[in-house]
């Protein structure tokens, strides 16, 4: 994905999150490769810790691992 497309996806994800549309926000964050935001939503808004762990393992996100550990 091109850089400007990632920025657009991230902006759209933030708008979806602000509207409480967390699943859609997570999808757009993932397409923007903002995995920490995906993991945060999965843990705090979508009650999907298993999916958060899967993404941490796939992306090897250190910050994501810290969020899951809490």
Automatic annotation (TrEMBL):
A single GO BP: cilium assembly
GO cellular component: cilium; intraciliary transport particle A
Signal peptide start-end: none
Domain of life: Eukaryota
Name the UniProt record assigns to this protein: WD repeat-containing protein 19
Species name: Halocaridina rubra
The encoding gene: WDR19_2
């Amino acid at each position: 994905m091109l850089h400007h497309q990632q920025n657009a996806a991230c902006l759209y994800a933030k708008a979806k999150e602000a509207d409480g549309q967390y699943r859609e926000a997570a999808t757009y964050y993932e397409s923007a490769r903002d995995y920490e935001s995906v993991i945060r939503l999965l843990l705090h808004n979508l009650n999907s810790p298993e999916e958060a762990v899967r993404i941490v393992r796939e992306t090897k996100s250190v910050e994501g691992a810290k969020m899951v550990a809490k």
